[in-house]
Amino acid sequence: MTPLLQVSNLVTEFGGGRGRPSLCAVNDVSFTVERGKVLGLVGESGSGKSVTGFSIMRLLDKPGRVAGGRIIFDGADIAKYSDEEMRQLRGKRIAMVFQDPMMTLNPVLTVGTQMVEAVQAHDRVSKDAARQRARDALALVGIPSPEERLAAYPHQFSGGMRQRVAIAIALLHKPDLIIADEPTTALDVTIQSQIISEFQKLTEEGNTAVIWITHDLAIVSRLADEIAVMYAGRLVETGPVGKVLTDPHHPYTAGLIASVPSQNKRGEPLHQIRGMTPAIDRLPQGCSFRTRCDRATDGCLVVPALMPEGDRSFRCIHPVTKEVA
Q1: Nearest alpha-carbon partner for 77 in 98, 64, 49, 58
Q2: Where is the ABC transporter domain (predicted)?
Q3: For residue range 229-269, what is the model confidence (pLDDT) as tens digits?
């Protein structure tokens, strides 16, 4: 089956010019997403997850730019699309749920006005039909009294409710691909579970593909089919979510899993990965994780290639095994 989305050797840079070097925030990233499947893109803050999503959507603010690679969506290289072609694609066939809902919502327009405009921007339907669709979307994400809420302004919603509105807007056109950037961070556990269930229905019944950007491995284990672990702008491990989470090969992946509180015994200190993610202008030589890794040797002074192993891959010359873990 041909994947719906195929990202190949994606490079995203910021800055440069006037003799200054550009900074690489996404470095040679490749992955695929099939229809009806969920890819969990995980890693610490600053690893390049959100920039990858913005690169696919062509929503990078200058001086950010896609400097290399291909983004094939449903057979077409959308990296070569004009701005107008991308506008027609966004919202209709590819939607994004932003981490901050205020990036989605206009503070001076009612929620109903914004949702109706979003529907009519892509579909020739009456205002009443668009309003009904907006009402249904709000009800779908658990917003009570959706008819009344359509007349409210964003500032009249709590942070969690605004996030639900943002998710509802993304669902309006039942897009082929949804890029969800930490979409449930501001939600309580009950609503979070409801939203995850709705995304599961979308993938199963609507054949929608999802890229779920998060640092929450518990959500990924429940929702995703495949997982891609990012660190300092590079993919360090990919594969089926069950295999990667039960048998991680990259030390960084193993460290993330060990840091989950449920992995520790009562009364023992929580495990942590020492140090912090390096800034993109101060990456160490060779493997970016080398300075935080207990398994590093002189061989790690060279950037390791992504090594395939069956249906998974990892970027490490000293992979973790089950015996070591």
Answers
A1: 58
A2: 5-257
A3: 999 999 999 999 999 999 999 999 999 998 887 766 777 77
